[in-house]
Design a protein that fits this description.
42% helix, 5-stranded mixed β-sheet, 230 residues, alpha/beta, two-stranded antiparallel ribbon, flat
Length: 230
């Protein structure tokens, strides 16, 4: 059972009557519970997809954006990579558990947050790291973060078809975001994205409103009234 984060694994283990050791692994006769730490794998940078999209650096090591980069950046097949140094520890731990217990693809259960992102997060890990087909993975759908909620969810484990649409939607969104963000950022020689662009606009609009403000005279009105109105 793969959880999204250590805190979730600890809470579930406590609810099910298990114990958690320093690696946050919960063992019982039925389940082996282990967490990730958010997105362990992600889509690799353009330069790792193909050298023609790599960002060049000057003699001082400063990144140089070039309008000569062929756009849009759309690889034939996206490559994934580990997101940070901590990710390797997580990968090694989960792989060791899989090998030790001879876990098969159909034995993997996604226990991440009950949303599209949680569905995609574990599916990417299973496919890109464990090299298992995510289509065989069952799903634990937790709608209440409580002891009763955990027990209810574990008593009703969903079949792989339950999550297929969410995983597909998540993949579509993440890939579209990546292609749009990477291509647009290179085109304008800056940072463009689904989140960063509107946030920057809000900041710029607020700054302009502040700069355009003019001093006005205001009056404060004070007075007295009866203690008892009625």
């Amino acid at each position: 059972v793969i959880c999204e984060k250590p805190s979730q694994a600890r809470n579930i283990a406590a609810a099910l009557g298990g114990a958690v050791n320093k690696t946050f692994v919960y063992n019982s006769e039925t389940y082996i519970l282990t967490p990730l730490a958010g997105h362990v794998v992600g889509i690799a940078e353009p330069g790792k997809q193909d050298a023609k999209w790599a960002i060049k650096k000057d003699s001082k090591g400063k990144m140089m954006f070039s309008h000569d980069t062929p756009l849009p950046i759309i690889p034939e097949k996206l490559k994934y990579t580990l997101n940070d140094s901590r990710s390797k520890e997580i990968v090694d731990r989960v792989k060791a558990l899989v090998a030790e217990h001879d876990i098969k693809p159909e034995n993997i259960i996604n226990c991440a947050d009950a949303d599209r992102e949680g569905s995609l997060l574990v599916a990417n890990f299973v496919k890109e790291v464990l090299k298992f087909p995510a289509s065989k993975m069952r799903r634990i759908w937790i709608t209440a973060e409580s002891e009763a909620g955990y027990k209810t969810a574990f008593a009703d484990i969903k079949e792989p078809s339950f999550d297929a649409g969410r995983v597909a939607a998540g993949l579509c969104r993440s890939r579209a975001d990546w292609v749009h963000g990477m291509s647009s950022s290179r085109a304008v020689i800056g940072s463009v994205g689904r989140v960063v662009t509107p946030v920057l606009k809000i900041i710029v609009d607020a700054y302009r409103k502040h700069m355009d403000a003019s001093v006005s005279t205001y009056f404060r009105v004070t007075g007295t009234a009866l203690d008892n109105v009625f």
